[in-house]
Design goal:
Protein name: L-ascorbate metabolism protein UlaG (Beta-lactamase superfamily)
Largest sheet: 7 strands, mixed
Number of strands: 14
CATH superfamily: Ribonuclease Z/Hydroxyacylglutathione hydrolase-like
Shape: globular
Order of helices and strands: EEEEHHEHEEEEEEHEHEE
Radius of gyration: 16 Å
Number of helices: 5
Structural class: alpha/beta
Amino acid sequence: MNANNISARYLGQSCVEFDFNGTKVLLDPFVSFNPLAKGVDVQLLQPSYIFLSHGHQDHVADMLEIQKNSDATVAAIVETAAWVRREGVSEDRVIEFNFGGTLHLPFGKVKMVYALHTNSTPDGVYGGMPCGFIFFIGDKKIYFAGDTALTLEMKLLEDLALDWAFLPIGGHYTMDMYDAVKASKLVNCKQVVGIHYDTFPPIAIDKEEAKKVFAAEGATLYLPDVGETLSL
């Protein structure tokens, strides 16, 4: 498979819509409840797949509506996948997997990796562990960290030669910009897209400071506007 048409549209908070050579893959859908994403019409999102890093409301709030509109397949760790089923998504549209597991899908491979955070689903039930994902699309490798603190587990990704890393930078609930730049060094990736920042007052950041922090370590931090598309 050629990896010559890969892009990512940032939809606010940690919601990213990847286009993998024509296949739309949506991560952590939180759009209609996000005051910074007023310009994004959730009704127009038509992914083939939805991946959930964990079950917190600011990562799953629009999952059901988007799934119903698109008939997307939803993939998540086992316990969060059980919540997806409880919401009424049919069994044949849910993929459960776990750490170390790799999905072989029509657009490429997806491996579940460790994240250091907490996880419950909106109905108050234990959601299993939070996680991140690595997407292998042709010769490209893209790391979506989900919500995580800085952890030495990231060093296990060092030898993958990642092309891009989507890292939380807002602090308070996840690692901040200073820990995120350390994370970029642990995973050996200099092309970083910031996620999980500015949506709520506790995670507001100084964007120029964040870019300087990364530049000082020889890395580039991209902070796209909501609705902006990056070519990967």
